[in-house]
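Q: what sequence does this backbone want?
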């Protein structure tokens, strides 16, 4: 059995946080109806999502891996909240229209 050092645990923890942030942004953009995100095979999907995260974090584009843990967690929560809010608006709109 292989043991992990503290450095490896931190690295995998940050990788998981980055993946969560990317998933939150991708779900939000899909829900918004972003043309590129409706096509699951779009090759620039992840690069586009990274760019959105970099702009939201106010870091230079291409510095995705330099975003800290606290900021990534906050961005993930923000995009998840926006997605939930948008779903709520859609539900209420359907209810108001009687659909």
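A:
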């Amino acid at each position: 059995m292989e043991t992990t050092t503290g450095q490896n645990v931190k690295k995998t923890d940050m990788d998981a946080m980055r993946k969560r942030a990317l998933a939150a942004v991708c779900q939000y953009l899909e829900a918004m109806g972003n043309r590129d995100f409706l096509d699951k095979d779009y090759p620039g999907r992840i690069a586009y999502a990274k760019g959105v995260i970099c702009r939201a974090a106010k870091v230079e584009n291409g510095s995705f891996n330099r975003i800290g843990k606290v900021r990534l967690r906050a961005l993930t929560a923000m995009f998840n909240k926006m997605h939930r809010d948008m779903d709520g608006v859609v539900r209420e709109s359907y209810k108001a229209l009687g659909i």
